[in-house]
Amino acid sequence: MDAKTMRARLQQFLAERDLSINDWCRRAGIEPGAVYAFMNRRTNDIGTLRLVALAEAEGCTVDQILGRTPVDKATMISLAQPILEDRGDSVTLIDVARLTGLPPAALQSIWLTIDDLVVDAYLDLWRRANEPVLSLPDDGDKATKVLQRIQAAGVRTIDWMQARLRFAVAFNRAILLTSAQRRAEFRRLRQESAEIYCARVLAPARDLMPLDAPHQVELALVLSDTAVQATLLNIDTPRRAVPDFRRRVEAITLGQIVK
Fold first, then answer.
1. 169: Cβ contacts below 8 Å, ≥ 6 apart
2. Whether the Cβ atoms of residue 184 and residue 56 lie closer than 8 Å to each other
3. Which of 42, 47, 96, 164 could cysteine-pair with 85, CB 3.0–4.6 Å?
C-alpha cells in the first residue's frame, strides 16, 4: 500500500472510531510526533512496529486499520489454540501459519512474536473457562463447607491446566516477555477470576470466612495462584499436584474458617 492510500485509510479509521492521534499514541506507548509526521507528509514511512502497537492499543489488527480484513483476530486465535495446546511455544508464527493455513502476514500484523500469540490465545481460553471451572456442582453438605469448596475448585483448576500443560508452561514464560498491555490484560483477567472465585466458591460456603469483600478477593487470588503453582512445580510428578495444593491450602486457611 502506498503512503498516500495509507494516510487516507488512517484518517478514515480515526474518524470511524472517533480517535485522536495523541490519545491513541499514548495508549500504544509511542510518540505521537511520528504519526503526525506521517500524516502531514513529512515522512512516507510510519513504521511497522508503530502500526502493530497502534492496532494492539485499539484491539484490532493492522489489516483492519488499513482496510484489509482477510481473517479476524478471534478466528486466528481459535485456529492457533489447538496447536499451542499441543506444542506450547515450540512453534514459530510461521509454523502456526503453515499448520492452520493462515497467511503469515495476517498473523504478523497482530503478533510480533510467538510469545505474543501464546499470551493472547491462553488468556482467551482462560477467560472462557473461568465460570465453568469454578461453578462447583452442588453435592450436598460437603459442597457447603468452605475448605472442601476451595479444594474442589483447586482440583478442577489443576485438572484444567494439566490437560493443556505445555500451553500453560509456555504462557507462564511468555507473559514475562510480552508487551505491557498484555500483562495489564493478564492482571485484569486475574482480578476478574478472583471475583468469580469469591462468588462461586467462597460466598456459598456455610462456614464463611471472617473477611470483608476486598480481603476475600485477595484470598481468592492467593488460592488461585496456589493451584497454578502446585501444577507447575509438579510437572514431572503430576500426581503430587493435588496433595501439594491441599497441603498449601490448609496452611493458608489455618485459623480463618469459622467452625
1. 88, 232, 235
2. no
3. 164
* pLDDT value at residue 141: 52
Dist. CA 127–CA 8, nearest whole Å: 36
All three cell numbers of 196, joined, read 468469580
CA atoms of 13 and 251, how far apart (whole Å): 54
* Calpha distance 27→24 (Å, rounded): 5
Per-residue pLDDT reduced to its tens digit, 147-199: 888 999 999 999 999 999 999 999 999 999 999 999 999 999 999 999 999 99
**pLDDT higher at 136 or 249:** 249
For 76, half-sphere exposure in the C-beta direction (CA atoms, 13 angstrom radius) is 25
Distance CA 27, CA 23 (A): 6
CB 137 within 8 A of CB 204: no
Contact between residue 205 and residue 259 where contact means Cβ atoms under 8 Å apart? no
- C-alpha torsion sign, points 145, 149, 150, 151: positive
Whole-structure pTM value: 0.72
Integer Cα distance of 97 and 111 in angstroms? 12
The pairs formed by 29-36 with CB atoms below 8 angstroms and a separation of 24 or more are: 29/53, 29/57, 29/180, 29/181, 30/54
In angstroms, how far is CA 182 from the centroid of its own chain? 7
